[in-house]
Amino acid sequence: MTSVPDPAADVYEGRDGWLFLIRGTNRVLEQYGRPGVSRRTLWRWRRLIESRVRRCAGLGATYLHALAPEKLTVYSERAEDLAFDPARAPALRLARWLTASPGARAWVDLAGAFRAARDGPPLYLRTDTHWTFEGCSLAYRTILSRMGVPPRDDVEARRQRTALPFSGDLGRKFTPHRTELAEGTAFASAARRIHANDLLLEMEALGRGGDAHLGSHAVFCNDDPLADPRRLVIFGDSYAQHTAHSPLATLTALFADRFREVHFLWSTGIDWRYLERVRPDFVLGEMAERFVIDLPPQNIRIERLAELARERKLMGTITGADWRSPAPPPPDAPASAPEAAGAAPR
């Protein structure tokens, strides 16, 4: 008889019920050990970021690269009985590899900013891998500072802070689910969505808009006189994404409130043809720290990613089959890319 894997084995419960992702297909905890992320992989990331800086400059854009830190990187003291070395966090090691590199000017040190603020209000949800509003706001301000753009200081006054019972992507790995009380992250904004690709629209029509991950594409416009008139394109993942899910805070919502035009493409790779058409002022590459273990493919096309994702997510809905199994994941999927059914980390 084949035993059924325990999903909770991917999660470590630390002090005061804080949950940490430690395994999964990205082998998260191993990335903090030796050898951890290989020197060859870090070198290839250095070359990749340098290339992005040069190519974006050739298009008249400024490139920035940001890793959403793992909870282990920020709150190591809350995982006090777990054997790992936070000093070998992939974000910290990659930052060192960028020293004296042209890519260093693109680097946004979110790990440093989060570690400096870890004694304040919680930056992550206890039962989730993602940020609270405070964590997302810190990331937003840190990235804007690297852009030389001042943040909107009135966002907090526009927040809807209703507290809700919540079980995050880590809490749902337990039976029964681990829950917490978490504040909502929505806020009033003049930003509006002016484009969504077919993948996103079809998933929304099925009532599964939150399941539209890799390949999703949305564009936002903001006519507020206080909006920065420039254009930002984000290539990111669930820490940015196309919509905010209370109580998860996402970067795209905050950036759409700040800039006249924001494009979000769910991809770790860069669609250079898209950038050639759009001609943005800023390009942000955002990804979870644990994704450093994989290099993204080159020369991706968002339309092709969306097509592959639609085949995977929607064919089962159309045929009545189990839509988790009929097709392999898109080639741009990191090892920890969510399955079609949800955003559970891997």
Overall description:
Helix 6 (198-205) packs parallel to helix 9 (302-319). The chain has helices at residues 39-58, 71-74, 90-97, 110-116, 133-147, 198-205, 251-258, 272-278, 302-319; strands at 11-13, 19-21, 62-68, 107-108, 163-166, 180-183, 192-196, 217-221, 228-236, 259-266, 282-288. The chain has one domain (15-319). The longest helix has 20 residues, at 39-58. The protein is built from nine helices and eleven strands. The chain starts with 10 loop residues before the first strand and ends in a 27-residue tail after the last helix. With 346 residues, it is an alpha/beta fold. The model is unreliable at 317-346 (pLDDT under 50). The strands form three sheets. Strands 4-3-11-9-10-8-7 form a seven-stranded mixed beta sheet. Strands 1-2 form a two-stranded antiparallel ribbon. Pfam families: ALGX.
What's the short version?
By secondary structure, the protein is α/β, with parallel strands linked by helices. It contains 9 helices and 11 strands. The longest helix has 20 residues.
Report the β-strand fraction as a percent range.
15-25%
* Outline type: globular
Number of helices: 9
Strand order of the largest sheet: 4-3-11-9-10-8-7
Helix content: 25-40%
Mean pLDDT: 89
Q: How many structural domains does the protein architecture include?
A: 1
Q: Using only CA atoms, what is the Rg?
A: 19 Å
- Structural class by helix and strand composition: alpha/beta
Q: Separation of termini?
A: 25 Å
Low-confidence stretches: 317-346
Main location: periplasm
Region (Disordered): 319-346
Keywords: Alginate biosynthesis, Periplasm, Signal, Transferase
Biased composition (Low complexity): 334-346
